[in-house]
Amino acid sequence: KYIMRYVSTRGGTHKCSLHAASLLNLPNDQGLFVPQMIPKLNRAQLKRLRGLGFEDLAFEILRLFITETDVPKEKLRSIVKKCYKGFDESDIVVPLVVLDEDSDDDDDEKKKSKSKKSSETKVQIHVAELFHGPTLSVKDISLAFAVQMIEFFLSKKHERANVIVATTGDTGPATLDAIEKFGNNRIDCWCLYPSGKISKVQERQMTTKRGENVNAIEVKECERGCDDIDDVCSKIFADEEFVQRNGITSLNSCNILRILAQLPHFFWCYFRTMHGKTTEEEIENHTMTCVVPTGAMGHAFTAQLAREMGLPMTEVVLATNANGAAHEIAMTGEIVKKSKAEKTVASAMDCVMPYNLWRVVYYCAEGDTEILRRIQDTYEFHGHATLPKKVLRNFRETFLTAEVSDYDTFESMKYNLDVHKYLACPHTAVALHAAQSMGLNNHDGENALVVLATAHPGKFIDAVQTALETEDVPKMAKHKTLEDAKMSFQRKRETNLENLEIALRTDIDATSRARRGRYVNLTKERAAGVLHEKYLRGNEPAIPAFPVSNQRDDQNPTSSSQMGQIRSSTSPPSAKNAAAAPANTSARADEEDEDEDDEEEVTSKKKKPKSKTKQQLELEQLKWTRWTRRLSILAACVSFHLVLRDPNRKNDIPFVDAFGKKANAFVEEKKKEIESLLEKRKEEKKQRQKRGKNEKSETLLIEPKVYIRERIGKARPQNPAFDVAR
Fold first, then answer.
1. DSSP 293-345
2. Which of 24, 169, 272, 424 could crosslink 348 through cysteines, CB 3.0-4.6 Å?
């Protein structure tokens, strides 16, 4: 038995309970909360979980991270049960649809040719449909759980809270729906979304909510998409007085509750892909490859966490759109700050900087907070950071990545509808294209290939019409929930990015005064502060992030099947370039000289001594004070001696003369003691020498003792009780 606690990725705060971690949202050092330890599941425990339903499986997995001290066992079970009440298939929650590459070919010649192929080429893709909740998105699973947990924590002390959420589409409707159902009027929510960056259906889902405690706000002039809104939210959360007064928290994927709620469906997919496997050997050899559509990397970190727990996942594939930071990190080992996000058809993944990346880097750095701080601080100060070799190697061993363009996304939607009669949303189509183009296989049925489907295609009608090149909406793109939303009035509020912070502060203050309730106060947790200033986010790094150079070739991905297609910045010289080469020799020589100068500057910078830590400086200061004291005492003694021995001194100094006489008497007395001690030692030495000569003559007639040599090289006499007969 253990008590699970949560720590910061930056290592600057004390460990805290789930109650504090979920309501604080971010630690005091502005890092992210992660579990203090990862519970490990062995084969026997996985076997016990295999036959459970989704609700029971979710309860057992969550119990590993939520102890009785945080939430009682029966209360946790009731919360989990309520989470999946509004789902289309409440018993299964996450149904799996099998796409078989050979199942839909009607041509007999194709079937004959394909039957000649080995079974290794046959690939089955299991699509895990996570969108059967009330708002038809994957966020329903995590947000229904997170809202109920926060409501439970607030109800303990009869408190209230204000929630700020920034969304690129699916998080907003799911948050507002969960707060409207489970908030019990204890939570007010402000849901912010960038104008023109989400679909019309998603916007209608947010603006048709009737609850008085939910607010959907459109933010205009967001060039970087949701990242611009995140910057404003981070400023508000940095104002401790405002946050404490209004009890502000967040339900974005940076909240640890959402990460925990996403764990069960990875285990569910693993157990449900054991097709007719009955023998223990087949079950033990069963593995899974999971393809995850990736934006803010919340599901990516959850998959990493499940793998660390012992779930047999061979690969975790991160499928990104044109804004995919994860793919660029895997390719180059560098994190680069971008000024603007590209608008893509997979709008929920239009994220320039995935904030859950730091959780991933934390575990890739094997929990070394100092490495993470240097990388994060370098990125924020210089807009660019390079991962060290160990972190990059662990990142590449954990994840495969692929970048999918809008063209490939549309082609994937059309292909899967024509071949498999399956219509996918743009985000799921990104993952399907990565799975179908990267050469992933089932390894003779031992490995299951699972693709996470994150949203219903009916939420992206424009993308469906563009992909299918028709104005008619297919039946599979319609749903009763979406049709009902069209019949409701919209309550729409809007502002621009420049005025967002002031407008949000004013509205939250006014709402808090109108509610007249006691808001959640985490003064004790926030008063704990940070262990040291160096742990705070925003410090300038003493040493910039590590350069990754001279790496071995085996660490760099070379095949598009592993990491997606690598873009080469160099191209082979053409005939024109070859003809013009002699004319550019001088320019090249100048460039080589400049490169040599740059290399000399780099080497000189490397030779510079490292900056010392605060502890080293304090030790040096202590040593210096000790030596100054010794030197001052020595100087005083020398000055007294000079005064006493001065032949030109006429007047007597009573204090000095008296001290000098006493000192001389003390010295003479000590000299006599030392001389007598030396004489005694000389006499003792002479007596020992005489005894030694007599003992040697006597021992020549005695049988010598046996000695045993120990490992450390010392000799000791053998114990007579264990004497070996010779």
1. E-SSSHHHHHHHHHHHHT--EEEEEEEE-TT-HHHHHHHHSEEE--S-PPP-S
2. 169
Provide the H-helix boundaries in 31-96. Answer: 43-49, 54-63, 73-83
Q: For residue range 56-87, what is the model confidence (pLDDT) as tens digits? A: 999 999 999 998 889 999 999 999 999 988 78
Query: Which comes out higher in pLDDT, residue 177 or 553?
Result: 177
CA distance 716 to 355: 64
Those residues whose C-beta lies under 8 Å from the C-beta of residue 292, and which sit 6 or more positions away, are: 299, 300, 303, 316, 317, 318, 319, 431, 452
Please determine, for residue 259, whether its predicted confidence score (pLDDT) is greater than 50.
yes
Residue at 602: amino acid letter: V
- Spatial separation of the C-alpha atoms in residues 566 and 358, rounded to whole Å: 24
Rg over alpha carbons for the chain, rounded to the nearest Å, is: 36
Angle CA 462–468–471, to nearest 5? 55
Chain centroid offset of residue 71 CA: 25
Residue 638 tokens read as 């020398």
SS3 702: coil
Q: Which residue has the higher pLDDT, 681 or 297?
A: 297
Rounded Cα distance, 467 and 453, in Å: 17
The C-alpha atoms of residue 529 and residue 524 are separated, in whole angstroms, by 9
Predicted confidence (pLDDT) at residue 218 exceeds the cutoff of 90: yes
Six token digits for residue 418: 């024509």
Q: Are 123 and 448 in contact (CB under 8 A)?
A: no
In Å, what is the CA distance from 278 to each residue of 100, 274, 275, 283, 391?
Answer: 22, 9, 9, 7, 39
Nearest to 271 by CA among 513, 446, 52: 52
The Cβ-side half-sphere exposure at 227, using a 13 Å CA radius, reads 21
Instruction: Name the pTM for this structure.
Output: 0.72
What's the rounded Cα separation, in Å, for the pair 213 and 181?
11
CA distance 302 to 259: 6
Closest listed residue to residue 61, CA positions, set 52, 196, 438: 52
What distance in Å separates the CA atoms of residue 693 and residue 713, rounded to the nearest whole number? Answer: 29
